[in-house]
Amino acid sequence: MVSEAKRKEHELAQAEYNKKFVDRRNLDLEEAKQEVKDTLERQQAQLQEDQALIAGMQEMQFSEHEKMLALRHEIASAHRAEEEARKRVANLRLREAVRAMLDSLKEKQRRVSMVQNEDGLEQAVREKTLAGLRAS
Predict the structure, then answer these.
(1) Would you give the distance in Å from CA 121 to the centre of its chain?
(2) Any idea what DSSP says for residue 124?
(3) Helix, strand, coil content of the chain in percent (nearest 5)
(4) Which of 1, 28, 35, 96 is least enclosed by beta carbons within 10 angstroms?
(5) How far from the centroid of its chain's Cα atoms is residue 25's Cα?
(6) What is the tens place of the pLDDT at every residue in 60-97?
(7) What pTM was computed for the model?
(8) Tens digits of per-residue pLDDT, 69-78?
(9) Which helix H or strand E contains 1, and what residues bound it?
């Protein structure tokens, strides 16, 4: 009977030990589950922050891209305006050169006319002189 009582006592002790072991194991599992859950929540929160940050950066990048396109357009317009101004300056210089050439030609033509007039007067004087000599 003693052995039966000792065996039952031993079984009860073993059962209690097993129960405590299982309870400790279950507690460890619950703590591990909670840690995993907390880690997952932190990672999800971090992911949302990262996504918001990325979205903000993409928006900023898009805004910068739009600004860059606007600047390129502005630069192209400035280049076109500069080219037009150069063409106008070249055109004005050409007109000025043509005017100077025309003025020079007019001056030469005036001189030629004066020389022709002088030649004509000399011819008229010669003819009168010859006519006067012939008449005398």
Answers:
(1) 77
(2) H
(3) 100, 0, 0
(4) 1
(5) 63
(6) 999 999 999 999 999 999 999 999 999 999 999 999 99
(7) 0.45
(8) 999 999 999 9
(9) none
